[in-house]
């Protein structure tokens, strides 16, 4: 995995993790890379200093330090995400279509979860459809 420091055209700074430099390029071309603050798809990599791996850094990666407060917050966030998932219908890639149907009264009101591209999400928001991303928590990928 490669971590890039990124910046959007509105000067919001954030980081992104990618499988490779080519992966970043492919995702950017497909409009999948966007600013988490403003949603702008105009994102570029910032100049970064090389990361030097030391024995201390390797040990920190093996045993990340999480305070009791951090752990409590993470546990609460996991509970919230689990509750949302347990009380919502997973419609997968049909999320934008199903969310619109509910918004425009063409389908019954219910909780949904699913997938949408950054462009689809922006379009839904512009239409006034209330959506929010679910966080992907660290252990969700392991």
UniProtKB/TrEMBL annotation:
Positions of region (Disordered): 44-74
Pfam families: DUF1178
Classification via InterPro entries: DUF1178
Domain of life: Bacteria
Name of the featured protein: DUF1178 family protein
Lineage: Bacteria, Pseudomonadati, Pseudomonadota, Alphaproteobacteria, Hyphomicrobiales
């Amino acid at each position: 995995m490669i971590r890039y420091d990124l910046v959007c055209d509105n000067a919001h700074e954030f980081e992104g993790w990618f499988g490779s430099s080519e992966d970043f390029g492919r995702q950017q071309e497909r409009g999948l890379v966007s600013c988490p603050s403003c949603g702008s798809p105009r994102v570029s990599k910032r100049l970064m200093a090389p990361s030097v791996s030391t024995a201390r850094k390797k040990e920190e990666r093996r045993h990340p330090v999480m305070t009791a407060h951090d752990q409590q917050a993470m546990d609460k966030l996991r509970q919230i995400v689990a509750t949302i998932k347990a009380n919502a219908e997973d419609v997968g890639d049909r999320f934008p279509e199903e969310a619109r149907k509910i918004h425009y009264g063409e389908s019954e009101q219910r909780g949904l979860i699913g997938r949408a591209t950054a462009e689809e999400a922006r379009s839904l928001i512009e239409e006034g459809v209330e959506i929010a991303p679910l966080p992907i928590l660290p252990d969700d990928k392991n």
